[in-house]
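Structure ticket #2291
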Amino acid sequence: MKNTIKLFNIFLSILLFLFLIFFYSFFVSKREYKNVNIDVKRGTTFSQIYKNLKLNYGILDRIYLKLSGRNNLKIGVYRFDGKLSKYEVIRKIKRSEISGIRLTIPEGFTSKQVFERMNALGLGTEEEIKKNLAEIKFPYPHKDNNFEGYFYPETYIFAETVTTKEVLETVLKEFLRRFPPEKYPDKQKFYDNLKLASIVEAEVSDREDKPKVAGIFLKRLQIGMRLESDATLKYVLRRQAKSGELKANMSPYNSYRFSGLPPTPIGNPPYETFEAVENAEITDNLFFFTHDGKTYYSKTHEEHLQKRKESGQMK
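Resolution: structure written out below.
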């Protein structure tokens, strides 16, 4: 009995000793940092952060992070300055105390809109952006330095010292991560699908409608029918086209006047819309329109006009 009590006391002493070591190293001991920036990306782990901050990532740290539910990392650039304990480092990341510039590219944004947002954030003027784009090697078609379609919609966070070229490289690398060049050997076919995906993205937002609308546009292309998408001319005008402009405007982006796809994508679509084009649902339908959040499909122009009247979209 005495031996059991003795062993138990020794065990408690060891546990207490380990706890005190952990408490000191985790909450009391501090390391000094002078403007150290840590870029947390997808897949970054706490072990990598510890390594970058020259901290020991022990088994007790792992247990604490797991039990406290603090092993979920928030993406962003974190700046560490002054004397900080491990606990303060983790708390800073947990609270998403991000240091840096946040660039958000919404789905369907045009390159012009991306340039304007970058300029507003101090990430480069349009002139600087175009100059840097000319120096970037890119595996997909981009005639005349036109990168429309390749600015992948996502939220990017940069250090305040980031250069315009670094911003562009980061955004384009994200596109290549989503669309690896080796997966698409026929680059022109890929580019045509990207053009169509950008049009589909501009026409409908519902995930279920995208493959259906993609199927209609593909069928029109197959039979030599014009796409007749208002979105293509809207891309050039940067506003909704008037009915007279759809008939008279001679821009190659006017799909009411010219057959086939436009010269470039008309925006930057997400992967799911590109996937909708690759898995398009081709049926007998040749017409569609959206009204009050619902998309209507028709086989003939007469049926199309009738549904527009019945829905209230056309008086």
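Closing remark: The beta strands are 31-40, 76-84, 101-104, 155-158, 287-291, 294-298.
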